[in-house]
Amino acid sequence: MAFDELLEYVGKATPAHRCYVQLLDNLTSEANITVNLTAEALLRVSIPMDLNQKPEQCRRFRQTQWQLLNSNVSTTNNIDLETEPCLDGWIYDQSVFTSTIRTEWNLVCEYQSFKSFAQAIYMAGFLVGSPLCGFLSDRVGRKPLLLFCCLACGILGTCCAFAPMFSIYCALRFLFSACMGTVQFNSLILLLEGTSPKWHPTIITVFGLSMSMGQVLLGGLAYMFRDWHILQLVVSLPYFIFSLFFCVVSESVRWLIATGQTERALKELKRIAYINGNKDVAQSLTTEILTYKMKEELNTSEKQFKIKEIIVNPTVCRIVLCGSFLGFSGVFSSHGLMLDVQSLGDDIFLSQFLLGVVEFPSKLLTFFVIRHVGRRPSTTVSFLVAGSCIVVNIFVSKDMATLRLIIFLLVKTSLASFVMIYIAFSNELVPTTLRLTLQSIFNLTTRSAAIFSALVLATRSYFVHLPMILFGIFPIAASICVYFLPETFNLPLPDTIEDMEKRDRFRNKGTREKQRKVFLETTEC
Questions:
Q1: Bridge partners of 59?
Q2: Can you tell me where the transmembrane regions are (predicted)?
Q3: Beta carbons of 379 and 418 less than 8 angstroms apart
Q4: Closest-CA residue to 318 (of 504, 132, 46)
Q5: CA dist., res. 1 & res. 276, Å (int)
Q6: β-sheet bridge partners, residue 19
Q7: Domain presence at residue 194
Q8: pLDDT tens digits, residue range 170-216?
């Protein structure tokens, strides 16, 4: 899954390019005139030079400027020569990629913003798929939807490699991302519902590490397969294999019991017990035992709430707004940087590899941070480090590629830590009776952030540093919002809005220990 999400960052790389010139690129054109001229000389008389004395990427001379062959003529006095857009297309440097999305449909120069729109459409698929996933999986089950969407990802991803038009490609990627968002969300829910709460931090950590591994492997695959069609196929075909695996995966027992399918839940539990070698446990399981063990959870799931409780209650509103802004800021900056991976240095493959590798120690360290450090200070530090480094990197020259890469690796480390902390923090902030609803709101804001990050990159044509300024300011501003959220470290999960309000009164650092003990004793858990 990480392959396909990160494929947006690599598959749409922009190679060096220039206008197609009949005199230079058509070997049969004026052969008797150009036979004794080098390619550099022909380029000089056909393409104007930019301020860095490199060929312009989007303009060419209207007429061949033979006088420029004279060494006495200065190239700095050519501003009055007539130029025109690339009317006959472009010639691309194929030393890095033989083919990309940009070269396939010429998404350069006046069409370069189409890349950002395509990325925004792709992210919009996640925005649509996430709430739809929650709605359908609560009605048809985790496993059937997971199996269907996995097969759909394989089919849609394969079709993308053979899309004849850019509009069709965008439509396929939209449907693909909607299905892939469902696969990501459902697979994590299936894991969490199938294990006890003490294993949840470990599962979240392993899930995050698997995404990092996907990014590392993508760097290697992109190095091996330089044509985007082949790379698209390579990352899409494994979905067919995964779908076979999901055929034998058990349905969520918690969902089966919650929907009244107790007999089927008992059958699944016995099957799991036999697979784990616990035959005695499998034989002793009965419907009565299962119903008794799950009684407390079923009673919690039956509690109803009204939507006005979210809108009218000031505590809930503030936590939803601040929590949403935290998620928005983190995803906005991290996705924006990944979409602009080419700015990290000349070697896009090494950059992609290092961005994935650096997350391993970061996420392993975050596992211990989640267990031993408060949510508010860890979130604040992550945001301040990331935002400050992004702003500093604006002033670092592009010629200092190594320094720029090191700074971005530090940013990526900080944001990767925040993502894991945010998963724990957002779950601890909201009460049980509203958890799924409020989590869907948080999820919508993070997916919206991914869309906006792609669109913000299109503003670079108006002010080159504007995207990076925004990517740096949002995390710094979000670190201030942390002050308005309560600390949740080592506190029981709130079950009701009353528990949520009670804990919120103790968010200031000066709270007396006696008040905390009262909260721990009176909170339902």
A1: 85
A2: 117-136, 145-168, 174-192, 204-225, 237-257, 310-328, 348-370, 402-424, 436-458, 464-485
A3: yes
A4: 504
A5: 28
A6: 90
A7: no
A8: 999 999 988 888 888 778 778 877 777 677 778 877 887 887 787 77
